[in-house]
Amino acid sequence: MKLSIFKGHSKFVFLGLSTGGLGYYYYQQTQQKSNKYTKQDYSSSDNKSSQSLDSTQDSIKNVNQFLYSVSVRPHRLKLQKGGEDANYAEQNLIAVADGVGGWADNGVDPAEYSNLLIKNLREIYNTNKTKYIQNPKELLIDSAQKTNILGSSTLVMCTLDQNKDILNTTYIGDSGYCLYRFDEKGNIKLEHMFTEQQKSFNFPYQIGGKDHGDKPQTALKFEHKIKNNDVLIVGSDGLFDNLDNTQIQKQIQQAVLKNKKNIVNVQKLSSDIADEAQEKSLSKSYDSPFAQKARASKRFFYGGKEDDITVAVAQIALKDI
Asked: What's in the keyword line of the UniProt record (predicted)?
């Protein structure tokens, strides 16, 4: 039986199979018993070979690179295993995978697929970085083909060309990214916001093992011309279901370092965005992006959407600038 799973890290109720073998679920909000969270954060400054986050403009760089920070806020009921998102970041690649939660109803841990997918992605990427930086969709396809266990995941990848001022991106499903740029006055502006790749409300495209999910070739692919100090935000749907562009943009503006024109503290920024998304996800009165999309699909939902939240922030540092 080929099973396609609706997205969800809260409770989904299985309704049955269509003639094509697709599983149908509806969203059912459940009350949680614990208010405790754990925070997981790391950044390029943790790597001794990385440039200082506060001295980007003062350093001579041989290649274009990301100055990045990743913050993870697992769902309260999934703290022990660290949630069901997985990620990998280094100076020219950022990847975020989100294990599809509906698999738990079939006795499969959604975290196993997303974690193995990222493990395989990292190993394949390191065999030929130059090749995969130029074509991250090929890396997505190769990683998906190697990850042949039960489960499925959404996935987003962004790669920064080491020599050209080009950002290459690919994604499948509702994990995604947005790109921001400073104007001449130092105000941050949105350059690009991804569009969720969905079959229907809360039913994203997904790659999976054992002949489940969608073909990885259906992933979308983009190329962006970038400028020095552009800010890239990459995340799982736990971010974008709870914060909109205006809220993210405000956080970026607040993270600009004093006396450092257009330089942001990426560590503070990723943590602050993740914390705000987490806070909003718990609200019962907040009109979240997820709630707005639900109502647009004629479903009743209000409040935030509790979920695993992964936020990767990268400021682009072009070489010799």
From this structure: Hydrolase, Magnesium, Manganese, Metal-binding, Protein phosphatase
